[in-house]
Amino acid sequence: MTEFTTTKHSTPVIKLNQPDDSHKFKLLPAPVGNYPYHLPLTDKVSAVSDQKIVFQMVGDTGSVRNPAFQREVAEEMITQFIEAESPEDKPLFLFHLGDVVYHHGEADRYYDQFFNPYRNYPAPVFAIAGNHDTDVNAESKTPYQSLDAFKQVFCSAQEHIVPFSNDVKWKSNTQPNTYWTLITPLANIIGLHSNVPKFGIITDEQRAWFIEELKRAGSERPAKAIIICIHHAPYSADINHGSSLAMINFLETAFTETGVKPNIVFSGHVHNYQRFSKTYSDGKEVPYIVGGSGGFDELHAIAQVDDERFTNQSEVFKNVKLMNYCDNRHGFLKIAIEKINDQLILSGQYFSLPHKTGDIKEPASLDDEFSIIIK
Predict the structure, then answer these.
(1) Sign of CA dihedral 141, 268, 100, 63
(2) Distance (Å, rounded) from C-alpha 39 to C-alpha 183?
(3) Quick check: 65 and 98 in contact, CB under 8 A?
(4) CB 371 within 8 Å of CB 347
(5) Once rounded to an integer, what is the mean pLDDT over residues 310-327?
(6) Residue 6: is its pLDDT beyond 80?
């Protein structure tokens, strides 16, 4: 557990005086699958237990200046497969929280930043797109549309070898859309697309879909957990982005309209690990996890309380508390959902990797763990 001090914020913050960059919004490509954009896990994994599922999560893995960080994270996740105590403890898949490559989603960035580091990853990789995956390089010698490469890797109509995966021969995933739901026996994992602007934008069309997904997922609880994945972090105390008021408003109005709150929310965008807990007026507690420490060179520190560029004075931060964080090491999450005595338990662990010094590889550290009962 991180030892909190009085010098750093223990609540979310807003970064003040930020310009409006909504002009960076990109139109989404057409879906490759049918509404309501569901993908059953059993389409990708042959043996899926209805008693326990385990998977890994990571975000912001792309790396420009120092590829060692993303490689170390990938290698450590693979090590968990090898050293799993039982077949039930082996992760079934990796769920990527966005920003697979930097800085503009070009196809020629995927080999160095994704295919090569993850060439030996032994399970399917699902993903939501981040702002950098969605952006377009206006100076590219080969013109392309937003998310062209991402779609070829993660959202193809049929599985095929990705043409720009080079010697890795990576097979594409078949997610039906850039926003979609992964259907598993124990959880509905709803993946959103929050576009390019710094604090995210959700279209009306996507919001209407999300409302219906929340209602459907709510009807299946408590037999299934409701997990929301969105790239732009609603709550953050970091110095680079801070919280996204736009994403907070989007989520909270949807929760109010449907009467359905998720069991947990995961995001990336911010390059560190943070775990917030929000207590609602009905007593329900929802963890909001930031997991964007998967490999990008620059990590984002937690803001100092005397830094005048930030404020935590906002009504939307009421009853939201930073429970734990790691802002100086890269890492990833391991999530388990298990039926225990007729109750569904979701548990999470965050592992961080010390930066190498010389040729000695130090083991990953378990920096945080949590569990919630699905109600």
Answers:
(1) positive
(2) 6
(3) no
(4) yes
(5) 96
(6) no
Count Cβ atoms within 10 A of the Cβ of residue 217 and give its class: 0-12 exposed, 13-18 middle, 19 or more buried: buried
User: Who's near 183: CB < 8 A, 6+ residues apart?
Assistant: 38, 39, 40, 41
- Report the chain's mean pLDDT, rounded to a whole number: 95
Q: Contact, 267 vs 233, CB < 8 A?
A: yes
Q: Which strands sit side by side in the sheet containing 365-373, from one edge to the other?
A: 125-127, 94-96, 52-58, 330-340, 343-353, 365-373
Specify the DSSP element, H or E, that contains 286. strand 285-291
Q: Report the greatest alpha carbon distance in the chain.
A: 59
Angle, to 10 degrees, between the axis of helix 245-258 and the axis of helix 204-219?
50
Residues pairing with 95 in the sheet: 57, 126
pLDDT at position 359: 60
The answer to whether the Cα torsion of 193, 195, 199, 204 is positive or negative is negative
Q: Strand 343-353 vs strand 365-373: parallel, antiparallel, or unpaired? A: antiparallel
Is 129 strand, coil or helix? coil
Which residue, among 43, 38, 61, has the nearest Cα to 189 in the 3D structure? 38
**Nearest CA among 298, 217, 292 for reference residue 259:** 217
Confidence tier at 354 by pLDDT (50, 70, 90): confident
What's the Rg (C-alpha) of the chain? Answer: 19
DSSP three-state, residue 109: helix
Report how far apart the first and last C-alpha atoms of the chain are (Å, whole number). Answer: 26
CB 227 within 8 A of CB 217: no
Predicted local confidence at residue 40, as pLDDT: 98
Closest alpha carbon to 323 in 10, 6, 7, 5? 10
Contact of 109 with 97, CB cutoff 8 Å = no
